[in-house]
Structures are given as structure tokens and as C-alpha cells.
Amino acid sequence: MALAAVAAGCSTSNPTAAVPKVEAGSTVGPSALGVNVAAWDSIYGDVDVTSINGLLQAAGVRLMRYSGGSWADEYDWSSNTDTSKCAGTVTTACEASDPLGFDEFSAHARSAGASTFITVNYGSGTPSQAAAWITHASATKADAVALWEVGNETYSCYETNHHLAGNPTFVKGYLPGGSVCPSTAVMARSYAVNVLPYLAAMKKASPSAKIGVPWAFSSNQAQGAGVDDAALWNAKVLHAVKGDVSFVDAHWYPFDTVSGLTVQEILQSTERIPAAAAKIRTTLHRELPGAAFVVGETNISERPTVFDFEPVSALFAAATSLTWLAQGAESVDWWDLNNFGSPANGDYGMVSSGSPETEAAGAPLPPYYGEQLASMLTASGSHVEAVDTGSPTMLGFESDLGQVRHVLLVNTGSTEAAVASDRWFASGTQLRQTAYSAATAGSTNPLVRSAVVAGRSEGLAGESIVVLSGNARA
Questions:
Q1: Do the Cβ atoms of 318 and 303 come closer than 8 Å?
Q2: For residue 5, what are the contacts with CB-CB under 8 A and spacing of at least 6?
Q3: Is the peptide bond between 274 and the residue preceding it cis, with omega within 30 degrees of 0?
Q4: Is the peptide bond between 356 and the residue preceding it cis, with omega within 30 degrees of 0?
């Protein structure tokens, strides 16, 4: 997680390149929904692992990204220490221990039935450190890693990136988070050279390892994750790493500041996703044919927001995850599991970190329920697509697996709306309905389950999600 430099990006797209299209939706794999877990997460590291893992399983979370956004570029997996408090030269004197080491994290993830996604330390680490991590993980089946990534948001001045001070850019006065901020072109040039030894060492340690690199958005795509000249970064980096990487990792934070935003504006951000996804697919088709993309982080904003304590974050989580999956993302990972925020100052978490949050540590927050409802549509092999609901205030998604169909509807308005369920199910079909709304959000269990009959007009409460499940319409 990083505060990204925000500015408009330029385009280097090739108008003659064929865009791999997914208008008819996409088939999801075994790790469609994920969550970020940090090495500093003492809640998941010690407090209530069994309970949290039960929640993650119930929400269909099948991928866990570690070791914590920007923290990854300050983290040494072998000693389970970080250099976040180091200023200037990194020494052992300024290193601090973390509560959740890699082996423990891996064991917890396996207990939750999840695969793992590891971001190695590019910012202050070395290629040999990354290769040793892969060797260690490969030696123990319980530590096996599905995806590896070199560095977190390395296109951002906020990220620790000591390579900038060395070859080939030699940026004078650079310090992580300091006043010297090189251009995206400089950062792309540095990364395109310095990532190659990491890739070589990691591939030597495990030739079959699936390794990815960061994807940059422009600010008109994602204000909270946008950088100057994003297209330049993507083209430069992907051209340099051809043949060595399997995917790119896109971080989707549609807003920077959230002051004054309405629920409707937050949810309308999903309308930007198809164009952003098309840009990724086009660029990969040109620069890295056959490569995949994941959304390794997403939330409303890259800054802590009070909205994550409100029902809108449930609606945002469900709609954002399903839109990206329908557009071909292999996984969408919420930022993050625990984030130790407060209702007054904001948070990012899927579950509570305890006081000063009002819920006990490990208790679900609204984003959890959004992911739980989205997971009803993301069983491996399901075909997920966005659908027309016939209402300007209602988002819709359909998932088919065999003869079973799930339809998830999001009422973005503040008042009740109605939709005819026979759009997707034969009239008279018995359906199962699962609903979450602003009206039920304060309940101990805010998910309301009932039986309905297709063909009748289904009412959706204001700011709500409804999932209808039954046999697909003939």
C-alpha cells in the first residue's frame, strides 16, 4: 500500500493492436478473491487465527498477498525484520522485528484453504535475498507460493527504492518519502535495469515460479493509485522483462481524497474498470503476449477512509471485485485484512483490529460482507459477467456454473428499487435470496436469507446487495 503521486498519464497505445475482448464475461479460476496480510499484522499473527480463518473460508477468500504493500520493500523475510524506522543508510541497529513471519503466515493461509502471493523486497533488498526466499518456499510443501512479485508500487516516490540512487539513474538526494521525487521515466528506467537480476536469480531458484511486476494506472483511471506517464512505465518495464514474467499486478484505488463523496459516486467508480482493464489487456497483448493480470490491492482510496466502516464499502467490495473478474482479472485482493484504524480516522480492514474500532478484534467489517456475497458467484469454473438490470441505479452480475445461476444486484440508490427476476430465471422457479443492506448492517448477522419465486418483482432496499440463486433460465 502506498500513497501514489497523482497526475494525468499519457498514452502509448498502438491503435492497430487487437484488444483481447471479454465483453461476454470471463471464467474465474480457483483464487478469484483474495486479501492482503502484512508482516506487521499482530491480530492474524497471534490473536484469533482460527476464527478469522473461518470467516475467510466462508467469504471464499482463496488467495493471501504478503508481506504488506509498501512494507514489502522494507521487509527481510529471513530475519522477519523490517527497516521502516531506518533513515538513510539501512543498518541492523534500526531494524525491528515483525509479529507475523513467512512460515507462520503460510501455515495460517493453508489452514484457511488459501494460496499465497508474495511480494519480495525490491526497495531495500537484494536478488539473492529474493532467490533464497523462493528456495526456502520450494523446499517445504506447506510454504509453496502461487505467485511472486518483484517490489510493490515501485512507480511511486512513496515507495522505498534505494536502486534510484545507483545505476543507471544515480538520483542525487533521494530518500524514501523525501523531497526528491524522480519522474516516472526515471523510475521506469531504474526498475527496467535493476529488476532483471531479481528475475534471473528467482527463475534460477525455481524455473517454474510465476513472477509478476507492478502495473501503473494514470490518475484519470484511478486517482488514488495514479502516476504521471503511467503508459510509459508499463511499456518500458514490460519491454525489458519479456519472457521472464507471467503477470502484472494492478492496484485499484479509484479515489484519493474522499471528502464530499457520495455513496453513488463511490459505486459509479466501477464504470471506469472496463476501460482500465482493456488498456491492460491491450498492452499485455502487445508487450507480453499470454501474460495475465491480477488486482493485488483494492479499496475505495489509498488513504484510510471512514467509508470502510459504512455499508457502502460492502457494496463497493462486491461490485469492484466482480467487475474486475468479469473483465479478466485472475484475482482481486482487498487491502487489507487488519489495519488498526478507527471510525474517526478511517481504516482499510476486512475485519476489525479491536479498540479503538468499535468491533472486537477479528469481527467482520462491512467489506467482509461484500466479499462474502461476491464469493457466491466466484466458484472455480464459474462464468461471471456484468448484466443489464434495466435500472440506472442498479448494478448487476451473473454467474453460471453448470445449471446453477447466481445473480448479484447492487442498489446504489438510497431508496427501494425493484427488478424483475425473470430476466435471469424462468418464471415460477424457486430461488434462494441473500441480502445485505444499510438497514441490516448494524445487526449481529446482517445477511438476511429467504426463499422467493422468480417472476415476481423483487424489491431491493436502499444501499443494498441481493443475491438470487437457482437453476439457470432455459
A1: no
A2: 156, 157, 158, 181, 227, 228
A3: no
A4: yes
Rounded-to-5 percentages of helix, strand, coil across the chain: 30, 25, 45
**What string of pLDDT tens digits covers the 474 residues of the chain?**
443 332 223 333 333 334 455 556 899 999 999 999 999 999 997 767 999 999 999 999 999 999 999 999 999 999 999 988 777 666 677 889 999 999 999 999 999 999 999 999 999 999 999 999 999 999 988 789 999 999 999 999 889 999 999 999 999 988 877 889 999 999 999 999 999 999 999 999 999 999 999 999 999 999 998 999 999 999 999 999 988 999 999 999 999 989 899 999 999 999 999 999 999 999 999 999 999 999 999 999 999 999 999 999 999 999 999 999 999 999 999 999 999 999 999 999 999 999 999 899 889 999 999 999 999 999 999 999 999 998 989 999 999 999 999 999 999 999 999 988 999 999 999 999 999 999 999 999 999 999 999 988 888 999 999 999 999 876
Cβ(470)–Cβ(429) below 8 Å: yes
48: cell is: 484469533
Grid coordinates given for 428: 415460477
Q: Using alpha carbons, list the distances in angstroms from residue 262 to 76, 400, 417.
A: 41, 32, 18
Q: Where are the alpha helices (H) located in 23-101, listed in sequence order? A: 42, 49-58
Q: CA-CA distance, 310 to 435, in Å (whole number)?
A: 16
Q: Cell for 160? A: 522505498
Q: Are the beta carbons of 210 and 146 closer than 8 angstroms?
A: yes
Burial class from Cβ neighbours inside 10 Å (0-12, 13-18, 19+) for residue 356 reads: exposed
Phi, psi of 251 (to 5 degrees): -105, 120
Residue type, 40: W
C-alpha cell at 249: 499486478
The three grid cell numbers given for residue 441, joined into one nine-digit string? 448492517
Rounded to the nearest angstrom, the gap between the alpha carbon of residue 192 and the centroid of all alpha carbons in its chain is 24
Q: Which helix (H) or strand (E) holds 451?
A: strand 448-453
